[in-house]
Specification:
Helix 1 packs antiparallel against helix 12, helix 4 (83-103) packs antiparallel against helix 13 (272-290) and helix 13 runs antiparallel to helix 14 (298-312). It is built from 14 helices and no strands. It has helices spanning 2-20, 25-47, 51-66, 83-103, 107-126, 130-145, 152-175, 180-190, 192-207, 218-221, 223-227, 238-266, 272-290, 298-312.
Amino acid sequence: MGAVVLRSGAVWSLVTAAVHDGRPEGVLLAVLALAAGYAAGRILGALTPVAAPCAGAAAGLVQAVLLPRTAPGPEAVVPLGHAGAAAALLILSAGAACCAARTTPVARVRLALWLLAGVVVVVGASLGSATAVVACGAVLLCSLAAGRGFRRGPVLAGLALFAALVTGLTWAVAGNVLPGGLAGAVREALTSRRAELWRDALGMARRASGLGVGPGRFGELSETAARSSPPDGKPHSAPLQLAAEQGVVGVLLLGAVFCWVLFALWRAPRPTPVVLTAAASLTALAVVASAGNALSFTTVTAGAGLLAGVATARPLTEALPVREPARTSGAAPRCGRDLHGGRPAG
């Protein structure tokens, strides 16, 4: 199912690019990074279910702090501008650390991993990203509460509904259909330029709802993006960008990818706390991507695939079935015990 969804997204981007002379390289790279990260996560999660997410958490934390292209730059005052990529990396790092904590049976290691997730929250505060602090804190709290015997099905459905509501809120802001007071508060939080970019994207989606305007062409056709300094050519919303550049089908394929990940988590053989922790982290990433351009960074899409792969992997360290000892013709049965001091066989 995942292969079909990802392949459909890649093919549709090529179709829309051929019709409108677009540039599908960004979409193709994102699909490739997500698929490669998911495959690597399935492999590493099966071999080292604790070490793999630990390494992923450390790598994401280092990248969020040190890489210049993901650190808050000229748009540091914008909650979900270019700094959204750093917030997304911190969210994935917190989720990976919490997944490792929920996997390890060693109490001291578990405590150390909880502390690592807390350090990620502190790093988000030091970077000045309120989004990272709130989202990472929510992931940590969800992971702590995931061990209380919740059923994964209703929780996953609730997370999907929450992501859909946030996406609907961005569309409502773009369409200027919110009440006056709420609309003003949202614009103040997101800045007026962000709202104008969203309106431009929604306008393109309405004019070309079938095939969009072509991948990579939003910056050429948006007056608000042309006036931006420095111009980045992004509407800072993954659903609105796909709606403008690839039409309704592009948005449906993006939603299908998210639903496929949640479906894979629902069927995953891992313990429910691990599954719910990963789902909470990926939902937080989806919320950030709905109001920012986090998915435009390859490290973010690859990290999301890696976390999803680790959370859906089947560990190879499962206990092997115990064999009963061979009985001699004159020996009495001992109910699965061998002759070495009465210890269990195998």
